């Protein structure tokens, strides 16, 4: 059996403390699920076998299985179960792949998959003290990066993601100018995609927010060059060539029955591990593995989508993938412009991949993401 992506919808991706920040995370997750079913009236909500959502934080309103909460809030029947998965930045892709496996194995007929993240609403947590009546207690932010790391981990493993990415860029001779150039490319292409209406069929309006808030049409080389390093005094990674902290949610209908005009067929997927400080190039091994499983070569791929955690990350991967035609990578911009709401990012990448393949007349495409703590994931799809 095979698994098909039938339809997909997402919220706009909101900027930090922006237009979506007042919405509870579980409510945000419910919105595209409800919209997906509204758009597909022939699908009986009771026939949904499962709801699988990726979510990275799970420390606030997304605690205790936000997928189940979102299913209930979306008015799905109480008989429809839900499960939440966490593979950090690839959590939403993991959800889609798990849904496809359920369908392809015959365990399910149709599944709703996707992801959510409200980084604006990520809470502070208070660690449980090791001793009674402690004199000092400190709140720990959960918005991004490590929290409460185990002291047994190697020091390099728990460096900030931006610092790790810029270290790899330096290793490959990728400087600040190249990183800023890629960031500008992302914003200009994302703005052009919105101007051309390429996202109109996928992005629902939410509380007066009609489009992604982080896309900066007014950015330029001078503005990017004027930003200070974000992670080290003499570093090359800045706020301008990094993905912004964002809020958003996405939902995809995965089915055994392709219907009349499916978005795509999921062909293969692969997840790999690397040393945590080299997480930024983990997509390279994942891509190679996913292509091998699909029996494909680089020349067979019409479109590539690499989730842009940092320009340094994308350029490092491309440095190690000389077979990839850069003109086919992120043709409509990436997460540096759109935003990176962790649990929802990979579904956005997969949606954009499928839609771009359709515009090109079909073919094979690859979506890939780096993952903190040293993992990478890639998904291969085919559009007829």
Identify the notable features of this structure and list them briefly.
transferase, alpha+beta, Peroxisomal Thiolase, Chain A, domain 1, globular, acyltransferase, 384 residues, acetyl-CoA C-acyltransferase activity
- The CATH topology annotation of the domain at 264-383 reads as Peroxisomal Thiolase, Chain A, domain 1
Main sheet characteristics: 10 strands, mixed
**CATH superfamily membership of the domain at 264-383, which one?**
Thiolase/Chalcone synthase
Return Rg in Å: 20 Å
CATH architectural group of the domain at 264-383: 3-Layer(aba) Sandwich
- Can you tell me the CATH class of the domain at 264-383? Alpha Beta
> Would you tell me the structural class of the helices and strands?
alpha+beta
Give the overall shape.
Answer: globular
Number of helices: 10
Spell out the helices and strands N to C. Answer: EEHEHEHEEEHHHEEHEHHHEE
Q: How many β-strand stretches?
A: 12
What share of the residues does DSSP label as strand, in percent? 15-25%
Q: Measure the end-to-end span.
A: 17 Å
What integer is the average pLDDT? Answer: 97
Classify the helix fraction into a percent range: 25-40%
Which regions are unreliable across 5 or more consecutive residues at pLDDT < 50? none
Question: Can you tell me about this structure?
Answer:
This protein is an alpha+beta fold and 384 residues long. It has a domain of 120 residues: Peroxisomal Thiolase, Chain A, domain 1 (3-Layer(aba) Sandwich), CATH 3.40.47. It has ten helices and twelve strands. The longest helix is centred in the middle third of the chain and has 20 residues. It starts with a strand and ends with a strand. The model has no long low-confidence stretch (mean pLDDT 97).
């Amino acid at each position: 059996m095979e698994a098909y992506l039938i339809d997909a919808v997402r919220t706009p991706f909101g900027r930090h403390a922006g237009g979506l920040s007042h919405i509870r995370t579980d409510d945000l997750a419910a919105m595209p699920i409800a919209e997906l079913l509204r758009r597909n009236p022939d699908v009986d909500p009771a026939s949904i076998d499962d709801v699988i959502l990726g979510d990275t934080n799970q420390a606030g309103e997304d605690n205790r299985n936000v997928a189940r909460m979102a299913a209930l809030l979306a008015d799905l029947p109480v008989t429809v179960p839900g499960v939440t998965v966490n593979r950090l930045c690839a959590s939403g892709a993991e959800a889609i792949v798990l849904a496809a496996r359920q369908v392809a194995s015959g365990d399910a007929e149709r599944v709703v998959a996707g992801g959510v993240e409200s980084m604006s609403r990520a809470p502070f947590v208070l660690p449980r003290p090791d001793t009674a009546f402690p004199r000092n207690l400190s709140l720990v932010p959960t918005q991004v990066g490590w929290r409460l790391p185990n002291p047994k981990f190697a020091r390099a493993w728990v460096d900030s993601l931006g610092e790790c990415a810029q270290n790899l860029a330096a290793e490959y001779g990728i400087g600040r100018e190249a990183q800023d150039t890629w960031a500008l490319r992302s914003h200009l292409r994302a703005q052009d995609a919105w101007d051309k209406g390429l996202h109109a069929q996928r992005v629902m309006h939410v509380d007066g927010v009609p489009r992604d808030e982080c896309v900066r049409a007014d950015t330029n080389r001078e503005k990017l060059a004027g930003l200070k390093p974000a992670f080290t005094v003499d570093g090359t990674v800045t706020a301008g060539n990094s993905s912004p902290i964002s809020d958003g949610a996405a939902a995809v209908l995965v089915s055994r029955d392709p219907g009349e005009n499916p978005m795509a067929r999921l062909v293969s997927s692969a997840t790999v591990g690397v040393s945590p400080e080299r997480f930024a190039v983990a997509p390279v091994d994942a891509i190679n593995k996913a292509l091998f499983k699909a029996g494909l070569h680089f020349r067979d791929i019409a479109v590539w989508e690499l989730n842009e955690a940092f320009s340094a990350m994308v350029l490092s991967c491309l440095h190690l993938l000389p077979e990839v035609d850069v003109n086919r990578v992120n043709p409509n911009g990436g997460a540096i412009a759109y935003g990176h709401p962790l649990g929802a990012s990979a579904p956005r990448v997969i949606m954009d991949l499928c839609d771009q393949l359709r515009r090109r007349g079909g073919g094979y495409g690859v979506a890939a993401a780096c993952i903190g703590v040293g993992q990478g994931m890639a998904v291969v799809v085919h559009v007829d």
